[in-house]
Design a protein that fits this description.
The chain has helices at residues 50-62, 116-122; strands at 16-25, 30-37, 77-83, 90-97, 100-105, 112-115, 128-132. With 140 residues, the chain is α+β, with helices and mostly antiparallel strands. It folds into two domains: 16-66; 77-132, no CATH class. The two termini are 22 Å apart. Residues 135-140 have low confidence and may be disordered.
Length: 140
Amino acid sequence: MTEKLLHCAHCGSSRIERIIDTGYMPDSGHTYYFIRCRNCEIRTALYCSKEEAIDAWNRRVESEKSKWNSETPNEPGQYWCHCDGFHKPAITLIVSHKDNLWIFSQGLGKDGSERLSSFCEKWQNYKLRWCAVEYPAVPE
């Protein structure tokens, strides 16, 4: 396992904030770690060890799934969404419900949930870009 962090897979920056310790979280009984790009603010999920956070960051650099694209997601999962006119990407959760994909968003206009198709139609005049977020399983 290497301590070296690779460049940001999303913006290419080498301005990477090494290890961020969230502190002890009483609800889970764990201390969590993540890594964040200081340029675009994309970050990893929370991990139980510094080594796992570094491995996850470096895997993202190599993963095609972690690249930004303009294709609207077609499967449930967590995605970053960036909209022209907004400085930072917003985190979204896309879920399947009754044969429709629904999006739960924070940071893009009004927070809340709606059908993904309605969301994309509402934002059609802006350039929406998507990027998958790879979250680990919940720690034991």
